[in-house]
Amino acid sequence: MDTPMNRIDPLNLPPRVLWLIFGVFAGSILMQAVAGYPMAWQWLVAGDNDDITRWLSIEAWRNGQSWFDMTQYRFLPPEGMQMHWSRYIDAAIAGLYALAAFVLPPQAAAQAVLVLWPSLLLCLLLAIVGRGTQLVLGGTAALVAMIFVMTWAFIRELAFAMSRIDHHNVQILTTTAMVYAMIWPGSPFRKGVIAGLFAAFSLAVGLETLLVVAAAGVVLAVRASFGRDGADARLAGFALALVIGSLLFFAGQTAPANWFVPYCDALAPPILSITWIAALACLIPMAARPVLPHPALRLGATAAISLAGLWLGSDLLSPCLAGPYGTLPVEIQTLITSSITEAQPVLIFARGAPETFIKIILPAAAITALASLFWVRRGKGDATGSATAQMLIFAWLGCIGSLIQMRMILMAAPALPFLAGFVFLNLLQARQSGKRWFGLTQGVGPTLAMIPIAAMVFFSGPITTALLQLTLPAQAAAASSVEDGGTCRNIETLTALDALPQARILTTLNLGAPMVLLTHHFGLTAPYHRSADAFWNGSFPFRDRDLMVKALVKTGAEYLVLCRGAGILRTDVFAKVLRSGDIPDWLILMPELNKELLVYRVIAANLPKLP
What we know:
- By secondary structure, this protein is mainly alpha-helical.
- It is 61% helix and 3% strand.
- The chain has helices spanning 15-36, 40-46, 49-62, 87-101, 106-137, 139-151, 153-159, 168-181, 188-205, 210-225, 231-253, 269-287, 295-312, 314-317, 330-339, 346-352, 354-378, 383-401, 416-433, 444-458, 460-478, 491-495, 512-518, 532-537, 545-555, 573-579, and strands spanning 504-506, 522-523, 559-563, 587-589, 597-602.
- Strand 1 (504-506), helix 23 (512-518) and strand 2 form a beta-alpha-beta unit.
- Mean pLDDT is 85; it is low at 1-7, 437-448 and 465-486.
């Protein structure tokens, strides 16, 4: 690899100083974990349903459920609710729990794991970003990259927040390692293997990063086609490690009886076949370089082999073109896209959550745009330009993808810290050199440019707070899908249901998972796309009397539970009728278990017959 950009690093921070700074940052992360420990369980209960279900999956495995059986039997008994997640994450978190349980009682060990797991992952991410950026851009950029990791709200407040144990933080970590291995100096083949293995594990954990892995393959293939130094070896290592690693990870977490089931939402035959097609499409033209001397010929051969492979495998692959929700009824697909806010396009998401938009999307867009501008102006011929170009591809992929679904900004997360360092380094160099910047007075332009960047990236929290004070009425109107305030997602409220004998309980969509976590009851609702019934049960019955009757008959629910003060949407007409006190004869309002809950016993014999 060419001489890195740190030959002109203005501050020239040595690695030992960076490691010291890393130690300070890591120490602050772990101190926050200690401070958050008392609230960890409540954060889990009040947080994301995915984190709750992950913990239930870990408990089920620890209690003897098969490694290969990812079914959640506490939901929709007796068949249960099938999940598409990876047992590898369960095993890692369960191992951390086992270590904590040596010195702590069970509940304390659980709370320790809930704060330690995301904190340790964040420390690993910080180390990869700091060291990786330093190897390419130097110490100054590495420091800024680490500051970005420590301050960007998507990482600190969402993906790596306390009690976040689903899998998105693992995917950010693995794809970050992948993209840095693509640009690190050193043995190209070995770095390609590292990138391929991290890519394979990322796919085993979940397919949200499929486009990131695909983009990595395309970037490496294009570089190899144009004969960049070491590009052939890096591509060969990546392709071989991706194919072999994906196959091994797939076999390790999939029951042999399911090896040939063509799931589209998990690492399964369709995705495995795509990795094989892609590997052959990359490696064959590379091996045929003597008869394909021109880059255009090699790229054409790669495209032709890819298209031929996709055509030959069309019977296997075509069902997956509809996406992970393609097999669900249209009404459930509409429910998912309308009720899961992070699945909305970013411009629609911004209207309902402007503060999150400011803290997450604006810094990403600003860094991506400015890095693109500096990359174009400083030239693209050296190793730094090549590394930055590769990072820009991932950043733009995430920014553009967020226009479709806000959560696709995840694809930009691996590249943004590096690009933040690149932007700051260019601004600092321009200021120190006294060069004019886009026609502005010497030194003034870079100085002025640093102000909005720093504000958007490092001070988005205070800016957001000020904005909320100005836009509070408008925000209240935008959030009017919920009738009134309050919440039942807390430990005291839901554990009151344990006073009832074990039963099948029908609740609104966001109460099912925390209720199952905290009580001995069976849940009938949950927002997981492999179960159309679990989705439907949590929403449609509360809209209409006949739909409620249909749900109670179909599920055999023995109790119906509503939150007295929240969780009722404007469309939930029948739920409003119940809350007003107009109760049909097939429901009996139970004596108050908790002031926040409305609990109805279902009288199955009185349920009306429906056509």
